[in-house]
Amino acid sequence: MLYLNWTDFSSRKLKMGLLLLALITGLGGCGQHQAVDHTGQEVAAKTDKPVDTSAQKSGDDRGCSYFHFLWGRHAELAAEYEKALAAYEKSLQCKPDAEFVHRKIPLLLLRLNRGEEAILRLRQYLVHHPKDTISRMLLAKVYIRQGEFQKAAAQYRRIHQLDAQDTTALLLLSELYLAENKYDMAKTALRDVLTVDERSYSAHLLLARLLVAEDNFEAGQRHYEQALDITWSEGLQLELADVLTRQKKYGQAVGLYQEILHHDEQNEEAQVALIHIYLLQGKERKAIAELQRLKESIKNPKQAELTIIRLYARWEEYDKAIASLEEFLQKYESSEARYLLAALRFQEGQYEKVLLDLQKVDHEATEYEDSLFLQVRTLKELNRHHEAVQALESALAQEEGRTPDLYILLAGIYQFIGQVEQCRNTFQRALEVYPEDEQVLYEYGLFLDYRGEQDAALEIMERIIAMDSEHAGALNYVGYTWADKKKNLTEALQYISRAAKLKPDNGYIRDSLGWVHYQQGEYEKARKSLEMAVELAPDDPAILDHLAETYLALGLPEKAKQTWRKALDMYQEYKEEQAGKGKEDQESKRIQEKIHRLETGESK
User: Fold this and answer.
1) What is the pLDDT of residues 536-589, one digit of tens each?
2) For 247-272, what is the mean pLDDT?
3) Cβ-contact 91, 75 below 8 angstroms
4) Which of 21, 181, 543, 551 has minimal Cβ neighbours within 10 Å of its Cβ?
């Protein structure tokens, strides 16, 4: 073994560091190239060959680009995204056509919640590289993240035009259409995939599920069979067997289940389904024999019986499920079975029996919190609100079972029965235990708004946004509040637009979007958003009120009058249901006055 003293080691380490520095600066190409002499002093670099500066003049320096790329990658892995972005930008300055860096930057911008910039960068890049399908894929992904599904779909279609043999874009397009409930367009995209690749497993499977959802069982069955021919799996065969059962093709279904059991005799789902088919066919002896075999073959026969009972419930055979549970509970006491029985009895309106069953659910059981919620719902149905309060207060007194949801539910009951200060106190108690819980804060903000304390509500909602910039509810509240007061309209539109991208199918957010457009004088935009809001939330009179105002602004008084009449009818229904709480009366009077002014020809 050679002995190396510390001085020698330090000297070698220093020289190695200088050598690495020389190599890096030699590769860097980002300034004047210099060398280092034996004393560590910088000297002019010497070479016998003339220096080729053409790459530097053209801005194409691969060494410089790679150097900054590595720094950017290091910063990105350390989650220092701003630093990473700056390094990648410098990498592009050195080598403007570095494709990989061009694709990296939009992803970083997304991480920094700068989606619009990411879109701009990608679109600019595609102007010069229109056939770059990878960048188009990335652009589609960004559009989806921003909630702009139609633009994403356009990119997928363009990718397919550029490369007709690549089915990935078409599959993604079909999934996008499915997310938007555009089932016919999804089917078209999937059939286009199969035109290119008739053995596309994903296309056959998605198409099969779509067709079965539309009750087109025969066509769906064919695609299931083709998918199974490509890649066989127990799960997929179970799906097909279920489709056959729904068509009452019991013989074929039995054959598929038996084939699954041949591969895996412990497959409980196939065994239970087989029992169900025998029962549907009236072959009770076969069903009983199969059930006994199932109980003996699996480790937990109790769970097998519960699985069968759950199947009865799923098939909406509630009487059978309840009778089976009663029989099961005579043999085995189980919190899981008790809760299931209570839930089924609630479905059947047997409220007193529900409460008796829930009393027997163990406080330590995983079903306990769900059983408590069901107990409160049942007491509410029976108009026994004070008992519901007692049950929740008792649960909250025990620290182990305490959750934010219990506080929110208790506050809601206090509000419903008119104990406003108790409701406020419950929220404040919750925030002492869970000061950063967004849901508690949000519900408290809504309560304050209901009480007319809008400034306090707004402060809480802005606090939520500071904690979570993607909280759609808080964004919508702040944006709508500003819009309703005709203040900060530009910012209000930004907030509500973000909320709409996060929850595009929320009618109340669409209503806010329409209302801010109305306040900006963009009446046609307001109309489109508000008509969509009415489709998504047809039973809200406040949305109809906003739509009527917009029709009036567009010079459509008859449509405005009809819409206000619908809103008035809804307020009258609410008044009857809520026994006239006051707010509905005020809104009804306000709308009646508007209708009266229209009918008498008075101006708005």
Assistant:
1) 888 888 999 999 999 999 999 999 999 998 888 887 766 555 544 455 567 778
2) 88
3) no
4) 181
Structure tokens, 420: 């406003």
What's the CA gap between 165 and 193, in Å, rounded?
9
Secondary structure (DSSP) of 389-434: HHHHHHHHHSGGG--HHHHHHHHHHHHHTT-HHHHHHHHHHHHHH-
| Helix H or strand E segment including 194 | helix 183-196
Distance CA 581, CA 467 (A): 35
**Residue 1 CB partners (closer than 8 Å, separation 6+):** none
- Say if residue 31's pLDDT is above 50: no
Q: What is the mean pLDDT of residues 480-488?
A: 94
Model pLDDT, residue 297: 64
Where do the DSSP E strands lie in 39-83? 42-44
Amino acid in the structure at residue 604: K
CA distance 559 to 554: 10
- Is the per-residue pLDDT at 26 higher than 60? no
Overall fold of domain 232-298: 1.25.40
Burial of residue 435 (CB within 10 Å: 0-12, 13-18, 19+) is exposed
Report how far apart, in Å, the C-alpha atoms of 249 and of each of 215, 225, 317 are: 15, 15, 20
At residue 144, the pLDDT reads: 83
State the DSSP H helix or E strand holding residue 35, giving kind and residue range, or none if neither: strand 34-36
Q: Please list, in sequence order, all residues whose beta carbon lies within 8 angstroms of the beta carbon of residue 229, skipping any fewer than 6 positions away.
A: none
> Residue range 259-275: average pLDDT?
85
Q: Which residues contact 596 (CB under 8 A, 6 or more apart)?
A: none
At 34, is the secondary structure helix, strand, or coil?
strand
Give pLDDT, residue 300. 63
String of b and e for 178-202 (b: at least 16 CB within 10 Å)?
beeebeebbbebbebbbeeeeebeb
Indicate if the pLDDT at residue 32 is higher than 80.
Answer: no
Give the phi and the psi of residue 560 in degrees, each rounded to 5: -60, -45
Q: Under a CB-based contact definition with an 8 Å cutoff, are residues 411 and 426 in contact?
A: yes
Q: How far is CA 180 from CA 144, 306, 321, in A?
A: 11, 37, 36
CB 563 within 8 A of CB 582: no
Residue 504 near residue 147 (C-beta atoms within 8 A):
yes
What's the pTM?
0.53
Mean pLDDT of all residues belonging to the chain: 83
Distances (CA, A) of 61 to 51, 97, 121, 376: 14, 11, 22, 70
Specify whether the CB–CB gap between 132 and 121 falls below 8 A.
Answer: no
What pLDDT does 99 receive?
80
Where does the pLDDT of residue 56 fall: very low under 50, low under 70, confident under 90, or very high at 90 and above?
Answer: very low
Span 377-395, mean pLDDT? 91
CA neighbor of 413 nearest in space, from 447, 437, 436: 447
Measured distance CA(378)–CA(387) in Å, rounded? 10
The amino acid present at 346, given as its one-letter code, is F
Residue with tokens 């279609």: 157
Average pLDDT over residues 240-247: 93
Question: Contact at 8 Å (CB) between 112 and 82?
Answer: yes
Tally of residues, the chain:
604
| Residues contacting 38, CB < 8 A, separation 6+ | none
Whether the CB-CB separation of 408 and 430 falls below 8 Å is answered with yes
Question: How far, in Å, CA of 541 to CA of 591, rounded?
Answer: 10
